[in-house]
Amino acid sequence: MGVRGLWAVSATALGGLILINLLLANANATAWLVLSLVALAAALFFCFKQGASVGHASCGVSSTIETARQSGEKVYAQLDKKYLSQAWSHTTGIKGIFAGALIPYVAGCVYIILSLLWRNNPGLQTAATIARVPAWLLSLPYWPIIMGGHEDFVALTPDIVVMLLVTPFILPIGTYVGYLQGPRLWAHTEDAMKQGRRRAKARARVGKKMAPKVQKPEI
Is the Cα torsion angle 90, 109, 151, 11 positive or negative in sign? Predict the structure, then answer.
């Protein structure tokens, strides 16, 4: 739950997409593009559903915290900061976006900076080549989208720059959108629990009315 939970969802989806695209890399360009887009759609759905699950669990934490607060300062003081940080909030969702995008975004920025400096400083060529490896790997799920206009990916073109700086946020945003469903799902859960309790009470009343009367023995 919390920022770490949102990061884990995005990281898991990205890892799965990288593995799938590594397996598809030997396919022809059209097959790779189509299958990679299908995999990306599935990953976004995964992020949405798992983000919603994290949001629902976080709302449960928020409910517990509110109950503890209403119970008194002593009860509330027993909750540690780590548990409190798992409560649902928009701020947590936004932090989850940046946490999920951080590693691929930094890798892309490092590669872009070294590639630009390399033009005036040939001594940085080796560093730029090394930086290209993690940048390419972490953005691999999106390469099929632009590879039709490239014979190679050595030159740093505007579309590659946009891809390296924008795509790291796609999966985390999908997770965030799912996380936003948490309050609605929690309200549905609470309503279902209330209805279940009402039905249980109604069945109990009906059971009492239908219970056979015990005839007292005559004296």
Answer: negative
